[in-house]
Structures are given as C-alpha cells and as structure tokens.
Design goal:
By secondary structure, this protein is an alpha+beta fold. It is about 15% helix and about 35% strand. The chain has 9 helices and 30 strands. The strands form 8 sheets. A 5-stranded mixed beta sheet has the order 3-28-27-26-25, with no helix packed on it. Strands 7-8-9-10-30 form a 5-stranded antiparallel beta sheet, with no helix packed on it. It is globular.
C-alpha cells in the first residue's frame, strides 16, 4: 500500500491559526463564563454550596480551584459551616479508608423526612429511614509502605501456564493497617492505632493532607492491656495544634500522687505527654487523670482551647475532665445537677459528652422516665449556667426506642438535632422546632454492617496554612 502524500500548499501552521480563530469566535458567541465573574461574586456563590458540591467545583476549572484553595475562602467557609456526622464502616473483614459526610439534602433547610426512603426505594411511613452516602472522603492508610510491598508481591504472580495472573485486591491485617477515629478539631481529625489507641496521624480528609506524629515510646508488656487516652486540640494563645496522650508509664511509682481531677491520692502510673504539631518529639507534662476501675476517658470533645472527656469511674462528683492547651494543665469542669452528690458508674454508662452550637453539653438517657435529657452549659465554667434545654420522650405509640447512649453530633440552624446511637448503628434525627417532635432513625443506605460516627465540621483549611512558624519546615505533610 502506497503512503499518501500531503497535498501541495498544505501548511500545519495555517491550520492551527485557523483553529485558534475558530475557537475565539466560538467563545465570543457563547459569551462570558462563570470563570469570568469577579472574584467577590464567585466567592459569594461558592460559599453557599455544600461540601459535596465544593469538592466537585474544585475540579471544574483552575479559577474555582484557586478560590476554594485560598486561605481566606477556607476561613470564611469554616466560620459558616455546621457539624455533621462523619461515618465509617466497621466491617470486621474489610479495611476501609472511606469516610462519608452525612449532609442534609441541598433543596431543603434540614433533614426533610420526605427525602428518606426504605430499603425498597419507597417512602417509609415508620420511624426508620435510609440516607444515601454521597460525600465520600478518605483517610491515609496506616503502614502504607508495607501495604505497597504486599501489593507488589501479590498483584503479579505466575500461573500454571507460565503467564502472569493479576489480582485486584490485597490482604491486609486490621491490626496493622486500621485507624481509630479519635476526635475532630477545627476540621482536622486525630487518628490512632487500634491496639492501644496511641495517636499516630493528624489529617484533613477534605484536602487529603496528613501528618505522621513522632514515634511513641514502646508500652510496657506488663501494661499492654491498658489503652491510651488521647485527643487533638488547639491553643488560641500560641496558635498551635497539639495532641495529648495519656498512658501507663513503665517506671514503678513508690510515692502517692494526687489525681488532677478527682483529687484522690494513689499510686497511679498514669502520665501525660503532649506533642505540638511542627516539632519532632513528645513532652512529658506530669500525672494524668485515672480511673479506679481501669475505665478510659470517653467522648473527647474540643471547645474553646480545651479538650473535654467523661471520666468513667465509680461514685465521683467531678466526672468531666478537661485539658487546657494554653496552660497545658488538667482541670475538672463542674457537672450539671443530675443527682445530688455522687454519680454512679451505671448512670455514667448512659451519658455522653459533646458540643452543640459552641456550648458544652451532657446527653443523659434517664431510665426512670425513658427520656433523653440534654444539659447545656450556657456560660463556660459556671456551674449555675447548666440548663436542661431538651427532654425527649423515647416512648411512642409504636413502642419504645432503644435505650443506651445517644451521642450528640450537631444542633443545626434548621432546628434539627443529630445524635449517634452505637447499639442501633444509626444517626438519630430529632426536629426540635417541628410540629411532630419524635425521634427518627436514619439508617445508612448501602452499608450492611455496623458503622461509627463522630461530629465533624468540614474545613478546606490546609495543614500547611494551619501549622505556621519556624517549625513548618520540619513537617512531613503529605497528600493521600
């Protein structure tokens, strides 16, 4: 077959020039695009979009990507954002890096029950509804180098005919690659390893950035069954993010020490270390709160430069522990007047701690009248400011709702309160301002196994912008 010849007078440059002129004429005919809008107008439009749409808009064009990645936009967006449930599957077989942000439908002011359907796709008339998980985020994989090595080992192998056989997945051990979700602070999440709950990573699932924390001191084998208590917080005074870790030290203690929360003297080996993001080490800061029965601190909740926990213990009056990141000290927080005197361990097992609309709150399931009672500290640190703002009846004509712990997630501007119920593995919806104020269970659509959820306020703030100063050069900030 003969090769064709170029016709005489054929010029590549001439064709390219004609194409450029054609494109220009087409642009003029189409008129201005969204990218041509003034920056303040584009900023105002993008600030009104939900997180799911912003993640899409960031990939549309360079102009929108630059606006969404701008630190000013990130701060404005975070100041207007609300906390939503951040959901992750708890499959015992699979290791999932996927997180799902449960946001209300875009066309409604809140979680409109008309948008919730049953498992057959039909509208559900009972109290159980299903929500679609659309805003998918990712966290880093623990021991990524080990996973990559195993992937290279199993992806290519010889078959019986001497060829190459490829596998689509690799086998990972959960104890080597799984993360625990500890808590969130200003859009960042603290992740810990599952065996002892030691903090190992701080990440922003929106931007995909993460920081590996310095390697921790190995735990003593004699106390290997003890978990660490940890959490992420922010110091407004120094403008630094810090991670605290409480664990049993290896050294024997021969002197009685005073617990910083309960004030009891004992021989506790519980100590605390703190790490400031941007440094390369952990710093021992002294004795940490401990429980007489080995229970760990529960429900880490950050508010106003302080991290709070519930101190799970037997018959104590000061059961809300806190750590101030400015002063780097532990302090008790006066609790609400649930009962006179001491609070039993059985009562505390039906309590949870959280933050609703920038106020510390206690959520208590009362077996005496089968009600969920929410106490809010209206003025931080003032015991008399505790106010019972909601009393939610869990008995209906159809029956009684599951008892146990209802963890507060968010009190949205629409008047909707979101909880998470671990036993039912469901987000619980309560329309406080609605005409019919009964509980609704939002089961996650497409998730057959149990799942966990934490309160998370989405943030487009970069870790590079959040961790400023001379220590920034030492950070090993990566993207997933």
């Amino acid at each position: 077959m003969k090769r064709g010849r170029k016709p005489r007078g054929f010029s590549t440059r001439k064709v390219d020039k004609e194409m450029d002129e054609f494109v220009k004429r087409e642009k003029l005919n189409l008129g201005p695009s969204m990218a041509d809008l003034p920056w303040p107008i584009s900023l105002s439009i993008l600030l009104r979009l939900p997180t799911k749409r912003l993640l899409v808009c960031r990939c549309v064009c360079k102009t929108w990507r630059d606006i969404i990645s701008d630190p000013q936009f990130a701060k404005l967006h975070f100041s207007k954002a609300e906390a939503f449930p951040l959901v992750r599957s708890l499959s015992p077989i699979h290791i999932s890096r996927n997180l799902y942000l449960v946001e209300p439908p875009e066309h409604s002011s809140g979680f409109d029950l008309r948008d919730c359907y049953d498992s057959d796709g039909d509208y559900s008339s009972d109290h159980h509804f299903q929500m679609k998980l659309e805003t998918k985020l990712k966290i880093p994989l623990r021991n990524a180098e080990l996973a990559m090595k195993r992937e290279s080992d199993v992806n290519v192998s010889s078959n019986s005919k001497g060829g190459v056989k490829r596998k689509r997945c690799i086998k990972l051990r959960p104890k080597e690659h799984k993360f625990n979700l500890v808590n969130s602070c200003n859009g960042f999440i603290c992740l810990s390893e599952p065996s002892h709950n030691d903090p190992v990573v701080v990440c922003n699932p929106i931007t995909g950035e993460f920081i590996n924390l310095p390697i921790l001191t190995p735990a003593n084998e004699r106390y290997s069954n003890f978990f660490s208590d940890c959490g992420l917080g922010f110091s407004p005074k120094t403008n630094q993010y810090k991670v605290i870790r409480m664990f049993n030290q290896q050294e024997d203690v021969y002197e009685r020490v005073r617990d910083p929360i309960t004030g009891r003297e004992n021989y506790s080996r519980r100590v605390a270390e703190i790490h400031t993001l941007g440094t390369e080490s952990w710093t021992r800061i002294g004795c940490a709160p401990s429980s007489s029965y080995g229970y760990k601190l529960e429900f880490p909740s950050y508010l106003n430069g302080t991290l709070h926990w519930l101190l799970m213990d037997y018959n104590i009056s000061e059961y809300i522990a806190s750590f101030n990141f400015d002063k780097e000290i532990f302090q008790p927080v006066p609790p609400p007047p649930l009962r006179r005197g001491m609070i039993s361990l059985g009562t505390m097992k039906n309590m949870s701690l959280g933050v609703l609309r920038n106020r510390l709150c206690i959520c208590h399931y009362d077996f005496a009248d089968f009600q969920i009672k929410i106490w809010v500290m209206k003025k931080y640190g003032v015991k008399e400011s505790w106010t019972k703002v909601f009393r939610i009846d869990t008995t209906t004509e159809e029956g009684r709702w599951p008892h146990g712990v209802y963890e507060p997630i968010s009190y949205l501007r629409s008047g909707c309160i979101l909880f998470f119920h671990r036993l039912a593995s469901a987000v619980v919806y309560y329309q406080a301002k609605g005409r019919f104020s009964s509980l609704k269970f939002l089961k996650v659509r497409g998730v057959k196994c149990k799942y966990e959820a934490i309160a998370y306020t989405p943030s487009f703030i970069s870790l590079n912008d959040a961790v400023m100063g001379d220590n920034l050069a030492m950070l090993n900030i990566k993207s997933r």
